[in-house]
Design brief:
about 170 residues, alpha+beta, four-stranded antiparallel beta sheet, about 35% helix, about 10% strand, globular
Length: about 170
């Protein structure tokens, strides 16, 4: 499925939305994924034109998610969710690690399919710790926890302000 042209186009579209609306976050995702692949050549991105490290197909036919957060994803990061059947082509970017989200049930005769791209927070932490665990890098759980506020501020700095979007050449 990953090699199907329509799937590759959807993956690129979701990634392009991040580049358009949060170019600094896009650069962080891109740099991190590229560094992982250079460090370990056995790793290959799912899609050549996407900065997301992971993807999932929800092929139902009655895909339902209960209220949840994707707490292992990058806290300030986004995931891209594209509807494949229910309102086909509709894509939304959400900060899935901190935003409680779900979908509504569909009627028995209805079908819902979706495609989601995301990047787990552990990938960014692994790269930031010189491609090893925080423990192997000599960072205790207490130290890691104390870094949270500064990492959050750094993450917020990757989001665009409305004035930046208004002045964008697009």
């Amino acid at each position: 499925m990953l090699q199907q042209k329509p799937v590759r186009q959807i993956a690129h579209f979701g990634s392009s939305l991040v580049r358009l609306f949060a170019p600094r976050m896009y650069a962080h995702y891109s740099t991190t994924l590229a560094s992982l692949c250079v460090r370990d050549p056995s790793l290959k991105p799912n899609f050549a034109r996407s900065v997301f490290s992971c993807s999932t197909f929800n092929l139902g036919p009655h895909t339902i998610t209960r209220m949840h957060t994707d707490h292992l994803n990058l806290p300030f990061g986004w995931c891209s969710i594209t509807a494949l059947k229910f309102l086909p082509g509709s894509t939304i970017l959400i900060p899935s690690a901190i935003l409680r989200h779900c979908n509504t049930p569909v009627a028995p005769a209805e079908r819902r399919y979706s495609f989601t791209q995301f990047s787990p927070g552990g990938i960014f932490r692994w790269a930031a710790c010189s491609f090893r665990s925080a423990k192997d890098a000599g960072i205790s759980a207490k130290e890691l926890s104390s870094m949270g506020p500064s990492r959050w501020e750094e993450g917020l700095g990757m989001l665009s302000k409305w004035s930046e979007l208004q002045n964008s050449p697009l």
